[in-house]
Amino acid sequence: MEHSHAPAASVVIRLAEWTKLSPETEPALKGLSVPPGAPQTVARSLRDRVDIRPTFDGLEVSSTSFVGRIDVGPLRLVIEPKLEALSLTRLMRYAYGVRDLDVLEPTRADTGKAGIVDLLVSLLCVEGSGLIARGLARRYEAKRETLSSPRGRLLVNELVRRGGIREAALPCHYFERSANWKLNQLVRAGLIHAARLTDDAVLRHRCNRLVQMLADIEPSPGISPIKVEQALCGLDRTTAGYAPALDLIKLLLEASGFTFMDTSTASHLPGFLFDMNIFFQRLLSRFLRENLTTRRLVDELQIRELFRYVPDANPQGLRAPRPRPDYALYEGKALQRFLDAKYRDVWNQRLPSKWLYQLSIYAMASPEPTSVVLYPTMEASAREARLQIRRPKADSGSDAYVVTRPVDMEQLSSLLDPRSNNLEGRRAFAEKLVAA
Question: Disulfide: which of 107, 164, 219, 347 matches 382 by Cβ 3.0-4.6 Å?
Answer without folding.
Answer: 347
